[in-house]
Amino acid sequence: MSKDVIIRFENVTKQYDDGPAVLDDVSFEIERGKFYTLLGPSGCGKTTILRLIAGFTEPTKGAIYFNGQKINSVPANKRQVNTVFQDYALFPHLNVFENVAFGLRIKKMKNADIKEKVAEALRFVNLEGYENREIREMSGGQRQRVAIARAIVNEPEVILLDEPLSALDLKLRTEMQYELRELQRRLGITFIFVTHDQEEALAMSDMIFVLNKGKIQQSGTPKDIYDEPINRFVADFIGESNIVPGKMIADCLVEFAGKRFECVDKGFEPNEHVDIVIRPEDLEITSVERGKLQVRVDSLLFRGVHYEICCYDQDGNEWLVHSTKKAEVGEKIGLYFDPEAIHVMRLNETEEEYDRRLEAYSEVSDEK
Amino acid sequence: MRSNVRNLYLIPYALWIVLFVVAPIFLILYYSFFDIEGNLTLANYKKFFTPVYLKMALSSFWYAFLITAFSLLIAYPTAYLLTKTKHKQLWLLLIILPTWINLLLKAYAFLGIFGTYGLANAILETIGIGSKQILFTDFSFVFVSVYIFIPFMILPIYNSLEQLNPSLVDAARDLGASAWTTFRRVVFPLTLDGVKAGCQAVFIPALSLFMLTRLIAGNRVITLGTAVEQHFLVTQDWGMGATIAVFLIIAMAVIMSLTGNRRGKV
Fold first, then answer.
1. How many Å lie between the alpha carbon of B253 and the closest alpha carbon of chain A?
2. For an engineered disulfide with A214, which of A24, A262, A285, A325 has Cβ 3.0 to 4.6 Å away?
3. Nearest Cβ partner for A154 among B168, B173, B175
4. Cβ-contact B182, B189 below 8 angstroms
5. Fold of A241-278+339-368
């Protein structure tokens, strides 16, 4: 199956003045019609990528391709891309209708057509009948929808969303996540969504790029990234995790917390030092005898859906457990987990090396 | 209780307003109903509507308009550039600096520059155009007035440009607008309040200029301001002077309400 690439970054570096590189030699491809998320802490370069695609800034080095054409210095107004800004950037002197119609008026479209298209766009975002409202009369969630309508009405090939949900309260944010995802499916337009909220990224995306310090740490489907984080940063950033140092004794045998455990990871050097990740929801509370690990409960937090239980083993490693069962503080309990729950990460492994190792040992197992 | 305390703080300012703003306005109104002999009359008002004074009023408005228009033409691009420069505060200071110098001193400086043997003529001489009569012309009057008023036009425009959310400009570009369209459809409409404030700050004082008309225009330009001065200080016809002042105040009020911020509505 050939990939339908719409945007390609080729060794793009972005540096402001003589400061450190905000983006450091980044390469990736964006396929048409998918929902992408750029995820990372503030200052990781995710917004810079968006601004480069939108055309608000030019790369210092490298090339950006759009539909196969190099667009490094094409100005923003000549690009088939529209942006939904973090602060919405709605024009305060224009009403809802004129805000949405802004792009169409610039294209010198006929009045009747503009009316029809704006009405359609507003219907898409559930804002029918709001045409004559002033922007200041709209709530945060409504402004958000106007901003989306203003972007989609131009029928761009790509829509860029710069943390558009960060200003909304939790309930509205969850609602908008569903709506955005639904909207993207209906329109079939490529969405590139920027956020620092990992839950948002996992819930909405086809593909996630995890960024840190101007580099893409890992890219993949939400499930790949959650289940198989490539390094400590990704594991820590995507969801809560228990990360402890360990040692690979042999294929499928790992040592940590002073014990040896069966696991499913292969392709390491004998006795190689590694990081072990176990997700809190994969740990199960059981009796001390039945547990693979023996720990003492240190604190307990009721989170609504589950208890968040913080425990320490005899080596002083912290273990976070998500469980619907309650435990008493100070109590000694056992923790049980499946071999599949253990995820082993090689130290300082890049994404390419990781993929190569994964391919290598899946070939081996295929031969068997 | 708390509002009582707040009212106490207002007393000095209220006193000031009553003594130096409200009272003088009533005094002017009062004087405008007396002729030069001290008889109560409406003759002054009748006299204002004669061609002499109407022409004077017209020329006042015309010059004030010219001064405002040229100030705006120069100030807007300057303010725009200023928001883009690196050392904004320094440049702003340099622009405000001349306003700290006495108006009279600046006027006298221009007498020197524009005089027959002044710098301007020396330059015209060397580039081969030859010396010209610059002082006591409409040109020099408007030029010096614009020079004096321009900081008052730049400041409010600069402030409104600074307050403009830069992502609105990005948004307009993103939606396909060229640089010029972005300016016309987004930047200018959103900084209109600053433009209005600047026009007020220039047009209203320009309407009642009298010192510059005397010094720079050599009384060739007679405005209402000059007429007020002449009546009070030379002809001693306080009644007529006051009447003209009443019309000036009315004109200012009208301009204020026309260019005032329609924040209540918008």
1. 26
2. A24
3. B175
4. no
5. OB fold (Dihydrolipoamide Acetyltransferase, E2P) (2.40.50)
